[in-house]
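Recall the central idea of this unit: under ordinary conditions, the amino acid sequence of a chain determines the structure it adopts. In this exercise we apply that idea directly, starting from the sequence alone.
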Amino acid sequence: MNIDYSNSTNDEIEKFYKKISKKVKDIREKKGFTQQQVALEIGIKSLAFYSNCENNKNEKHFNLEHLYKMAKMFELDVVEFLK
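Accordingly, the structure predicted from this sequence is:
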């Protein structure tokens, strides 16, 4: 008997990731940075990996360190990605 102790569905988690990815992309574009500039600044060496995170593809997502570094780069509070 498998018991699911999770308080959220996979669909909810996927929507959460999509929300953050869209916010990152919107802020990046508003600030005038390219994907490559941001990727290099936050320590991601693969532009394809960054693009997958930003476009929520192939189950790739930004982690907390990425969000923290982007917040510093964009000169905003990290909570902006969650609004």
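The chain has a mean pLDDT of 93.
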